[in-house]
Amino acid sequence: MPKNTSSLFSIKLPRIILVSLLSIATNSSYSQGCCSGGSGSPIAGGASQGVLQDRQMEVASTYQYNSSGNFLTRDKDTAKLFERFFSNYIYSKVAYGVTKDLTVSVEAGYFLNKTQVGLFDSVLNKSEEITSSGIADLIIFPRYDVINRNGENKRIELTLGLGYKIPLGKHADSTLVYTDPGTGQQYFTTSPPLVQPTNGSHDLIMYAFYFRGWPDNNFRLFTNALYIRKGWNSLGEKFGDYASIGLFAGKTFFEKLGVTLQLKADRIGKLKAAENVDLLAFYNVDTASTGSRKIALVPQLSFSHKSLTVFALAEFPLYEYVNGTQVASQHQITFGLSYRFFTYRSIVPKSGETVYACSMNCEGGADTKPGKCRICGMDLIEQKAK
User: Fold this and answer.
1) How far does Cα 48 stand from its chain's mean position?
2) Which of 197, 204, 279, 346 is the most exposed place for a label (fewest CB within 10 A)?
3) 15-344, what's its fold?
């Protein structure tokens, strides 16, 4: 039987045999309703995103590592259901400033691996692993500046976004659970949501970003809010909606080094089953052990040189509550880089030629005819080139 399948087994089995096979599948089989199984946010690092300048482009890539061997029943430590879970995730995007107020980005995630390591089996003298890799999701993410005010001593920006997530990866991959010793027939069951590259649903992303900066002091406060409305996948699963809010404070030192501290709270709703779909029997998913709430502290460092920025951040859980028993958050680190550039040439006027330039001296804020600055929106002023 091929590994990618949405059916439970290669042949149909009576319910009593099905339950018996599931009970001996692996030590990690009980984790399949875990909150980490594709039900959070696909946007690595929870980055705050405003808008780019007119005709500016950004190319960015982020690497995120997750690992946990910590298990909770509600908010209390409990025994391990399996040894640990870890993943290596690459998240990339290309964004373009269509106007000074509208930015559209195309973003995608790729898992180098998502791996669940079972408890040590003394009979087999090893720990069984369930792992997968591959592309996850494609996200189309337009954002629009509702407010953008620049003054000498302060800057205010309010951005709203409405995105759409398209699942490209596997969400119904299967795992070998039993081999008949007499016939050699192999039987497969759908792998845990925890190790599937995507949750398999088309999701709606709603986003808000508010920024307040004081350029003279190189200090900024901002907040972002994200809500992801999950759809149904082909297995009859609807992962819980995801909501988060982040409060940030940041300061720049030596004009290049940025230090930011984030307080982040998020909530994941419970997984739901479609009518006449028994997730526990079909896919060993206990919906009572899905959904969570968490508060975390996220420090971040960034370094910028001209158009290039590199950054690193780590998430430290302060409080976490899970429904039922689940693997909890433990270690998450993120590294990334971003490069921004303009897709047009700055106008270089000839001597004596009339040009219209921005009174704020914005880079590229000039044209050969009257209008508004594409960078800050102020009226262009007639000037004579020397």
Assistant:
1) 11
2) 346
3) Lipocalin (2.40.128)
